[in-house]
Amino acid sequence: MKTPRTLRLLISATSLLVLAGCGYSATPVPEAVVPEPATPASSAPCTDTGNPTRSYKPVDGGLPAPGDLPAGSTMAKIKARGHLVAGVSGDSYLLASRNPFTGVVEGFDIDMVNQVAAAIFGTAEGHVQLRVISAADRIPLLQSGEVDIVARNMTINCARWDQIAFSAEYFHSGQKVLVAKGSGIDKVSDLAGKRACAPAGTTSLDNIQELAPDAIPVTAGNHTGCLLKFQNGETDAITGDDTVLAGLAAQDPYAEVLTGEALTDEPYGIGVNSDHVDLVRFINAVLERMRADGSWQASYTKWFKPSLKVDATQPTPVYGR
């Protein structure tokens, strides 16, 4: 009789054969991750409030209809072009990844992009150009104007406010831990003497070892590499943002994300060129509408709740920048 570990590997191999049969061309995953260049500490943009999630208040009167976009606004220029250009991930399952059967990039972040496009054009269909980018590309492409927005699980912080602008927080993530079901690991302190994997160059393992000093650090090029090590029995746990871990758990029926308080706070915001404050206000009005009509909640329930197994609500916006 095969062990669960063997069954898991067979499931993974079978999945690859199914994808190959559908003609799916997977998004290339680099062997190693180059750490994102450090950004200088911010002075004025964040010290005035002490809260990096503070953004620009939506325009008075709420969200304008597509036919009533202010003349000369960033939104009107995007509409005249005919499509919204959004920088996204292409291989972050549940956030933004290519569906192997339809070829469509989908996920929670894509839902955010589609909502912004629909507010500009009346419908997102045919009016969104997704550009798959790396984490290091996010700020430079916004600054150069090559993309209008970035929805790529980007944490809002003061250093980034010094370079770009952010919408209000649209998802509150945090570092958690993924383990095998029935492993006996129920909390971070249980990782003492156990192996925990995180991408090289991140601070995730440092955070783990503060709570479990005897945990054994294991590194890989990225979280996909950690998942391979996990399935091959080379690590007992994987740590990272709960959104990323939810995607890994959804791909492995023997894995689960530990519930409980996150180790860090990672407020996600939609990135915008700092010169386009009108677009930031517009996006914030879109997020307000998503709160009112339940579309944010529906997106969370669809993409994340099955793996994270916890309820969540849309973050309360903080305005006044």
TrEMBL record:
<dbReference type="InterPro" id="IPR018313">
    <property type="entry name" value="SBP_3_CS"/>
</dbReference>
<feature type="region of interest" description="Disordered">
    <location>
        <begin position="35"/>
        <end position="60"/>
    </location>
</feature>
<feature type="domain" description="Solute-binding protein family 3/N-terminal">
    <location>
        <begin position="83"/>
        <end position="307"/>
    </location>
</feature>
<keyword id="KW-0732">Signal</keyword>
<feature type="signal peptide">
    <location>
        <begin position="1"/>
        <end position="20"/>
    </location>
</feature>
<feature type="compositionally biased region" description="Low complexity">
    <location>
        <begin position="35"/>
        <end position="45"/>
    </location>
</feature>
<dbReference type="Pfam" id="PF00497">
    <property type="entry name" value="SBP_bac_3"/>
</dbReference>
<protein>
    <submittedName>
        <fullName>Glutamate ABC transporter substrate-binding protein</fullName>
    </submittedName>
</protein>
<dbReference type="InterPro" id="IPR001638">
    <property type="entry name" value="Solute-binding_3/MltF_N"/>
</dbReference>
<dbReference type="InterPro" id="IPR051455">
    <property type="entry name" value="Bact_solute-bind_prot3"/>
</dbReference>
<keyword id="KW-0813">Transport</keyword>
<comment type="similarity">
    <text>Belongs to the bacterial solute-binding protein 3 family.</text>
</comment>
